[in-house]
Amino acid sequence: MKVALRDNQDFWSGVMLVAIGAAALIIGRNYPFGTSLRMGPGYFPAVLSSVLCVFGLILMAKSFRSTDRVEAGWSLRGLIIIPLSVVLFGVMMTHAGFVPALVVLIFGSALASDEFKLVEVTLLTIGLTLGCVAVFIWGLGLPYPLLAEF
Q: Which are the contacts of 144, defined by CB distance < 8 A and separation ≥ 6?
C-alpha cells in the first residue's frame, strides 16, 4: 500500500533540503565564485547548497517507492531544550571556552530525547568533544580558547 506524498517523511525531508539549498544559493548568488584553485567567498556556499539540493531531489525521488509515514506529535521538551542548548553554546564560547560550550551543547541536545541514557551521552560527549578539539583547534587552527581564563 502506497502512502500519499503529503504523509511521506522522505518527500518532506527532500522538500526541506531543496528549500534550504535553494535559499542558500539565492542568498549567496552575489558572492564572487572564483575557481577551484582560487576559491572566492561564494564557492563553498554554492557547491554545498547545490549538493544539498541534489540530495533533496534524490530523497524526493526515493519517496515515490517508500511507505514511511510522518509520525504525528511534537516534543515540547525538545522544542525548548535544543534551542536553549544552542544559545548557551554561543554564550559559553566567549565566556567559558570551546570545551565547556561543546559539553553543554552535546549533553543538552541529548537531554531533549526521551531515550536519554547518562552513560551513553557521557561517552558521546567526551568523544565528540575530543574529535571537535582535534579537528577545529589542532587541525584547522581556529583561535578559540579551550578553557576561558578566569
A: 93, 97, 98, 136, 137
Q: Which of 61, 59, 28, 30 is nearest to 45 (CA)?
A: 28
The total of other beta-carbon atoms located within 10 Å of residue 49's CB is 20
Q: Grid coordinates in use for 148? A: 576561558
Task: Please say whether the beta carbons of 112 and 94 come within 8 A.
Answer: no
- In sequence order, what are the beta bridge partners of 103? none
Choose among 77, 76, 137: nearest CA to 101. 137
Average pLDDT by stretches of 10, the chain with 150 residues: 65 91 92 83 89 94 76 78 93 91 92 89 94 90 81
Taking the C-alpha atoms of residue 26 and residue 31, their distance in angstroms, rounded to an integer, is 10
Q: Render 52-66 in DSSP notation, one character per residue.
A: HHHHHHHHHHHTTT-
Question: Letter for the amino acid at 134?
Answer: A
Tell me if the pTM is above 0.70: no
User: Can you say whether residue 140 is alpha, beta or left, with left for phi > 0 and alpha for psi between -120 and 50 degrees?
Assistant: alpha
| Per-position DSSP letters for 85-97, written without gaps between them | HHHHHHHHHHHT-
